[in-house]
Design goal:
Helix 2 packs parallel to helix 4, helix 4 packs parallel to helix 5 and helix 6 crosses helix 7. The strands form 2 sheets. The protein has a 6-stranded mixed β-sheet with strand order 6-7-8-3-9-10, sandwiched between helices. The longest helix is centred in the C-terminal third of the chain and has 18 residues. By secondary structure, it is of the alpha/beta class. It binds adenosine-5'-triphosphate. One of its GO terms (molecular function) is ATP binding. It holds the Pfam family ABC_tran.
Length: about 260
């Protein structure tokens, strides 16, 4: 990758969903760039095209216009360099926690010994070291989500694409997982495109928060999050700069709904 070149760059992106009767313009001239190691969250009203943007970055959708590039090369289909976490990320129910997290390491051809070390390190990080022999059905929703996060970190992609990854969790578990996720991310420092409805979560995690307009989605505003790192995922909310930013983003979004 060239110096100063964006990890992910989206230029004048247009995406259309077409059926026999309808054609919906989901994204309209979207420009967004994510630097190496930068954490960018996207917030915006329901249906504004956040997931659509993520799917283009994942190589799952072809744009109707403009382009999306990874390290300066046009994204052309799914690549192993990009890791995705979705809201309803499923674990393999017939495999133990240990084997679910181990799978990406096996696919990468890592030696058995290293696989074991890495799985145990990741399970310790998400606080599930004692649950390696359990099956997904024996865990709570929050614990399953933690296993899914450990598995994503096992993939160790260059770019993390995350669509409401903590979506279906209760508020308290969401904070616990957010905390763990931030701690893990601060150690690996990879580029992230993170989609959420939660402004506080976006600020607490990100270097930059991007607000989209309602459909067709465009980038309405970008907010730099100038809060030190490592930062406390929950307590950072009491910082005056956090509150100011939250107010600004809230007002920006409120105009759209
Ligand atoms: N497969 C599809 N076929 C037709 N229209 C679609 C399809 N997927 C999404 N759309 C439309 O494109 C627009 C953007 O959808 P998208 O899922 O990207 O929004 P979103 O911002 O992620 O929404 P939410 O926050 O509610 O999850 C919506 O109006 C939606 O109805």
């Amino acid at each position: 990758m060239k110096k100063n070149q964006a990890k992910l760059q989206v230029q004048n992106l247009e995406v259309r969903y077409s059926t026999k009767e309808h054609s919906t313009l989901a994204l309209d001239k979207v420009n967004l760039s994510i630097r190496e190691g930068e954490f960018v969250s996207v917030v915006g009203p329901s249906g504004c095209g956040k997931s659509t943007l993520l799917k283009v970055a994942a190589g799952l959708l072809k744009p109707a216009g403009g382009q999306a590039m990874l390290d300066g090369k046009e994204i052309d289909g799914v690549t192993g360099r990009v890791g995705m976490v979705f809201q309803n990320d499923a674990l393999l129910p017939w495999k133990t926690v240990y084997d679910n997290v181990r799978l990406p390491l096996e696919i990468q051809g890592i030696s058995r010994d290293r696989q074991g070390e890495e799985v145990r390190r990741l399970l310790r990080m998400v606080g599930l070291a004692e649950f390696e022999r359990y099956f997904p059905r024996q865990l709570s929703g929050g614990m399953r989500k933690r296993v899914a996060l450990a598995r994503t970190f096992a993939y160790d992609p260059e770019l993390y694409l995350m669509d409401e990854p903590f979506g279906p969790l209760d508020a308290q578990t969401r904070v616990t997982i957010g905390k763990e996720f931030l701690k893990m991310w601060e150690q690996v420092g990879k580029s992230v495109l993170f989609i959420t409805h939660d402004i506080e979560e976006a600020i607490a995690l990100s270097d930059r928060v991007v607000v989209m307009t309602s459909r067709p989605g465009r980038i309405k505003a970008e907010f730099e999050v100038n809060l030190e790192r490592p930062r406390p995922f929950y307590d950072i909310r009491f910082d005056a700069r956090f509150k100011e930013l939250q107010k600004e983003i809230w007002h920006c979004m409120a105009e759209e709904t």
